[in-house]
Design brief:
With 198 residues, the protein is mostly helical. It is built from 11 helices and 2 strands, in the order ααααααααααββα. It folds into 2 domains: 1-114, no CATH class; 127-198, no CATH class. A hairpin with a 6-residue loop joins β1 and β2 (168-171).
Length: 198
């Protein structure tokens, strides 16, 4: 399409318009590539209203989500950052969208806009597989936010007996060591931070 229209890389406004056309035709991933090229060449194009609308819309689709979020964080100004902040810090946001918005804020040095307690707690409650939850728990520990401790305490391994003569079973076994490690980090390594539940 670029060749047919005679669009060259040194024509950022034309590349931006091409991105609009691609977005409308459903080629959202290609639109993000052209938006990026146009904005790198001429940052003033970030004020284009259609661009800002399309970037917000593109976050809905997996194919364009991550790139759109980064472009919005980098070129969307305060309005773009606030939009991503709302997505990253809401338990009501779709998990993939929340994580993409959060990562875009981190990648563009806007990490201060992330409410880690709300965002990671939402991830933890949404994700149910052990591997996913372990990754979230590791992120919780890295934040250093002691607000995660009540949640982590609730997920410490607990021995539960099955029936009168049944064997004991450990609940939360697949995340237990990650929970214990995170609690240790968040309590500054204090051994008395709480013992495993009986």
């Amino acid at each position: 399409m670029k060749e047919a229209l005679g669009i060259k890389p040194d024509m950022p406004a034309a590349v931006l318009l091409l991105g609009h056309a691609e977005f409308l035709s459903g080629a959202r991933d290609q639109a993000m590539i052209d938006y990026d090229k146009a904005l790198v060449a001429d940052r003033e194009l970030a004020g284009d209203i259609r661009l800002q609308e399309n970037l917000r819309e593109a976050i809905k689709w997996a194919v364009s989500r991550d790139k759109a979020a980064v472009l919005l964080a980098a070129y969307g100004g305060t309005a773009g950052t606030d939009f991503l902040k709302g997505l990253a810090n809401s338990a009501l946001t779709d998990g993939e969208v929340r994580r993409s918005a959060r990562q875009a804020l981190v990648d563009t040095n806007n990490e201060a806009h992330v409410d880690w307690l709300t965002s990671l707690t939402a991830d933890f409650n949404e994700l149910t597989k052990c591997k996913q939850r372990r990754e979230v728990i590791e992120q919780m520990a890295k934040t250093g936010n002691t607000g995660f401790l009540p949640l982590l305490e609730d997920y410490r391994p607990v021995k539960v007996k099955k029936g009168a003569f049944g064997k004991s079973k450990l609940t939360n076994a697949c995340i237990g060591d990650a929970v214990e490690a995170a609690i240790l980090v968040l309590t500054g390594g204090r051994v008395d931070a709480g013992a495993p539940k009986p």
